Amino acid sequence: MTSSGTGWSGGAFGDRAQCVLAPNADTMTLDGTNTWVLREPGAQRCVVIDPGPMIESHLDAIAQAAGGRGNVGAVLLTHHHHDHSEAAKEFAQRMGCGVRALDPEYRLGSEGLGDGDVVEVDGLEVHVVGTPGHTADSLSFLLPAERAVLTGDTVLGRGTTVVAHPDGELGAYLGSLDRLHALAEAQEATVVWPGHGPVIDDALGAIDFYISHRRERLAQVETAWRSLLERHDPPATDDLPMAVVEIVYSDVDPVLWGAAEWSVRAQLAYLQR
């Protein structure tokens, strides 16, 4: 699960990236949403990923990093959650460009975005990798020139993410982790530039951890679920997910139990498929 923290403030990474941190820190967004400004060295235009929440000071900071109107070739979204997408259309209109997303509802202009697409802006290449699971429309972006993968909420810079049931689905999420693992194992992605929290310099190690953690949690949820059902007075169906949370996530701050319940519902759906 996620938790708030301090010490991360964004900055420049590699030769092509600048992370502009949104001032929306809380228990679910960690230090805030990472907005990524990607530009080929020496190029005029850039790509902006996840403009984030509708906070004017943040939009001003992104615009400054991008170089102002006319210097953004496209806005891309990793997924539709408001802490990533809320300001996308307004920012794109301000910069004079479109918004590309998997979900048509979040687009501005006619261009969509999907697995296998390559977005090219002034020599910069961004490869789209479908990574559903956190949400149905979750995408990651591979930057081959940096061997970096921008994961949105699929892999976070600290802690673990939520499978946001019912939109999110655990089977899809496990498949997405396997896909990212293959990119890391092939050294196509050696660093993770996440949607929240600090960059991860060991992509393979982080994804290995995510996979093992998710499998361990699933086993814990299954054990708790079966033990609850075997009681002489098992919880009502609607109360069962939270009863599992109280057992499996007893070491987690209760403020995060609501998010944990989403993940437990996703895990129970997976176990009952």
Between the first and last Cα atoms, what is the distance in angstroms?
24 Å
Instruction: Give the ordered list of helices and strands.
Output: EEEEHEHHEEEEEHEHHH
Radius of gyration computed on alpha carbons: 19 Å
Q: Characterize the main sheet.
A: 6 strands, mixed
Shape: elongated
Roughly what is the average pLDDT, rounded to an integer?
95
Q: What's the total count of β strands?
A: 11
Describe the structure using short key phrases.
elongated; 273 residues; 6-stranded mixed beta sheet; 17% strand; 5-stranded mixed beta sheet; alpha/beta
Layout of strands and helices, then pairs:
Layout: E1 11-13, E2 17-21, E3 34-38, E4 46-49, H1 56-66, E5 72-76, H2 82-85, H3 88-95, E6 99-100, E7 118-121, E8 124-130, E9 139-143, E10 148-150, H4 170-185, E11 191-193, H5 203-229, H6 240-248, H7 257-271
Parallel strand pairs: 4-5, 5-6, 10-11
Antiparallel strand pairs: 1-2, 2-3, 3-4, 7-8, 8-9, 9-10
Describe the structure.
- This protein has helices at residues 56-66, 82-85, 88-95, 170-185, 203-229, 240-248, 257-271, and strands spanning 11-13, 17-21, 34-38, 46-49, 72-76, 99-100, 118-121, 124-130, 139-143, 148-150, 191-193.
- It has 273 residues and is of the alpha/beta class.
- The strands form two sheets. It has a six-stranded mixed beta sheet with strand order 1-2-3-4-5-6.
- The longest helix is centred in the C-terminal third of the chain and has 27 residues, at 203-229.
- It starts with 10 loop residues before the first strand and ends with a helix.
- Residues 1-5 have low confidence and may be disordered.
